[in-house]
Amino acid sequence: MTHETDPTLWPVQRLSTEISSRRLSPVDLVDAYLARIDAHDDRLHAFIEVYADDARLAAQAADKAIRSGHAVGPLHGIPIAIKDLVEIEGRYVSGGCSQWVERKSARTATLARRLMQQGMIVLGRTHMVEFAFGGWGTNQCMGTPWNPWDPLQARIPGGSSSGSGVAVAAALAPWAMGTDTGGSVRLPASYCALTALKTSAGRISNYGVLPLSPTLDTPGPMARTAKDAALLYLAMQGPDPLDPRTLGLPVVHGLPSLHRGIAGLRLARMPDSERAGVASEVLDAYDRSLDELARLGASIETITLPCGFADVAALSGRIMMAEGYANVGDMVDNDGLRLDEDVRPRLRAGRDVSAQAYISALGERAQLVRDFDAALSNVDALLTPTTPTTALLLDEVDQSKGPTQFTRPANFLDLCALALPNGIDTNGLPTSLQIMGRTYTEETVLRIGCAYQSATDWHTKYAPGIASGM
């Protein structure tokens, strides 16, 4: 099959059109994805569990409903992969922890229920970093997914939504759901050439999603294009009485400005001081992206920020460690339990965050949110690279550090942010652009992403062998 005839390589927008017009059956589509999973996931290790039989049954039901004129919406019959911390009643959910492999859910997460109510078909649950606490995407106990952009050497897939990223990058699913506490949808997007949206807190319900840091956790879509990310965002968002943070926010019924272009928008470049330590090819791709956005009519501006990204990331880490330890401290303190020994010390460090230090960090966060909001008040978005390097070899990783200097600030400052591919380096590895917007401006960052992708083709690139079936 060719790229034109293989539906597993099509964007979701096209899949939706083909299914609704009855030129493509959900049964055939699900079978095609399951065949790819069966053929390649032993090596890629994206899925912890595949719901093959149930996915086929759901596809048959969707096909009958659509053919009889009872489609529930434009996403009816579209498959999706779900990160292994989203609960679905009666199914296992481990949060990437081998100690929880027999943990069965007694409830269904609101976001999963919304996806299924719109007729989407869950293909299975994807691997992740243990307890969602790690940006490299590794997992000592349950295995690390293989980044498909290097078929010969094992490289980091990015985390914590590592399996979701690999599943979409390798065309094992058309899109996936992940979560982001310090970059966990954007980091896999950067290393695997995807488009991923970190949403503002409260836009998507966290009910039924295993927590790492309730202050910072945000679910988000992972897809190949900004248009597809927008579709999945719309499908998941909205107030939920089971999650108080979502209440009081209006339902987003559409994104009317998504395709209006960006002429007249004001976009801020990151301060020159933030370029230190960033790979030259990542910076080159970033600079070319700014030039392209300027060519599309945006004004690229220089602004002064209240403090450096590293300072923000450190404060974010303090909150993340304290809240993570509060959730699973009894496990990480039990040396008799087999846990990921890269993750355990990160969580155990939360034991040493005093109540005073934690409350102080929350207070500093509130002040910095106000300060950054003022600094960004005259621009529509702040642009940075998503990660300082392309995907490292696994044996090059320093687990005492993380690749989150550009991603953690969005969570800490409650910004929304879109990561999207913007180049390929000389090693054949993707680079990524991050578009950060003020709270609840998802439509703006998606609009910028759509404009950029309408003028470039980085989002259409596949890892070696993917488009030819590997």
Helix and strand layout, with pairings?
Layout: H1 12-20, H2 26-44, E1 47-50, H3 52-67, E2 79-83, H4 110-117, E3 121-126, H5 162-169, E4 176-180, H6 186-192, E5 195-198, E6 218-223, H7 226-236, E7 266-269, H8 280-295, E8 299-302, H9 309-332, H10 344-348, H11 355-375, E9 381-385, H12 408-412, E10 416-424, E11 430-437, H13 442-455
Task: Please provide a written account of the structure.
This protein has 470 residues and is α/β, with parallel strands linked by helices. The protein has one domain (7-308, 363-460): Alpha-Beta Complex (Amidase signature (AS) enzymes). It has an eleven-stranded mixed sheet with strand order 1-3-2-4-6-5-10-11-9-7-8, sandwiched between helices. The mean pLDDT is 97. The protein contains 13 helices and eleven strands. The longest helix is centred in the last third of the chain and has 24 residues, at 309-332. Helix 9 runs antiparallel to helix 11 (355-375).
Brief summary:
This protein is of the alpha/beta class. The chain has helices at 12-20, 26-44, 52-67, 110-117, 162-169, 186-192, 226-236, 280-295, 309-332, 344-348, 355-375, 408-412, 442-455, and strands at residues 47-50, 79-83, 121-126, 176-180, 195-198, 218-223, 266-269, 299-302, 381-385, 416-424, 430-437.
